[in-house]
Amino acid sequence: MSIQRVSSKWTKTNAILPNPTLAAYVPETRLYTFDHLNEMLAVYGTVYIKPDNGTYGKGVMRAERLTEPLPPTEEGIIEERTWYVLRYEVDTFTFESLEDLHRVVSSRIRKRPYLIQRGIPLLQHEARPFDLRVLTQMNLRHQWETTLIVGRVAAPDKVVTNHHSGGTTRFFNELVAPYMDVKESVRLEQKLSKMGERVAWQLQKRYPRLREIGLDVGLDQQNYPWILEVNTRPAIKVFSSLPNKSLYHKIFRYAVGYGRYSPSTGKAVRSKKKA
Q: According to the CATH classification, is domain 9-26+121-257 in 3.30.70.260?
């Protein structure tokens, strides 16, 4: 039986939200519209605009609402100047009105479904934002098991951390060490491990042939973990370069066990069409 894949971020988000424990870690996410852009920028200041069916961070944009006080009028009234910034790949665009921002975003989106998500101010490594990839797999006992937690650091001037967009992999402990002590990092690692297993279990209730997930988690300035995205076809062979070869062999063995890779050739087995 083939492994089930779910391409729609919106569908996966709505499958997780009924679980109140997990919902607390999901940043507000809506379908992209002008009204939602206006409302969420007013509340959060920064949002991410991402394709519902995108992969590798392609098409992801970041929009910001910025303000600065103007000199007081003769009557002593202080007003604000508001402007907007859009970042896409390594390009930055500035707009004086929300309508102008929306017009450019719409020209990139066209008719494709896009989402708008609360922007999380991520922790940084060497002045670049990073997030964490939590790899959770169905083990040989047919139980969910988190097998790996690693960090991904964005390439210079990029708004996403994906390897395909130039992001680099770093060890979990290396990235969190400046922000917490050893005991705190151990607790966080345990929490993320359980989070991956709970998300997998929650999604499996709707998608019973699910066998693996890659959970993208961002840490905010208070070290609070936010579930940014869930991938149902997570990268695996990219971890073959890890120094701990036994860990990679375990990950690959599980993937063979649930049918992602052929036990005879080690090559990927074609999966059924995505949901």
A: no
